[in-house]
Amino acid sequence: MYTVTVSREFVAQHFLTVPEAGPEGEWHSHRYKLELQLRGETLNEYGYLVDIDDVTGALDRAIDRYQDETLNDLSEFEGLNPSLEHFARILCDRLLDDVEAPEIDSATVKLWEDETAWAAYERAA
Predict the structure, then answer these.
(1) Taking the mean position of all CA atoms in its chain, how far away is CA 52?
(2) CB under 8 Å to 44, separation ≥6 — which residues?
(3) Which of 63, 68, 107, 110 has the fewest CB atoms in 10 Å of its CB?
C-alpha cells in the first residue's frame, strides 16, 4: 500500500453548541493542523499515487474556505455542533471531491485543534 501525506496549518473560529460546553461554548480561535493522507495499492503511469501539486492545490482551496471564518456561520455546519470530528469529515469529503486520482483507495483527514488533541475521519475513495 502506498501513502502520500500533505499537511497545512490555518486558523478558524467556532463555538460549541452542546449543553454545558464550558469555555468551548464561547467564540474562540484554533490554529488547526490538517493532515491529508491518501492511500492506494497502485501507481499511475508516472509512478505517482497522486500528484502532490494537485493535493496541495486542493488543500489550499479548502483552507481558503475556512481560514479566519467562524465555522458556525458556514452552511456545511448548519444544524451541527462544529466539533473537531464533524470538521474532519467535512474536510475529508471536500478534499476527496477535489483531488483527481483514480489510484486512491482511501483517504484520512487528521485534524489537530491544538498540540495535544486531534480527531480523524477516514473514508474510501
Answers:
(1) 16
(2) 101, 102, 103
(3) 68
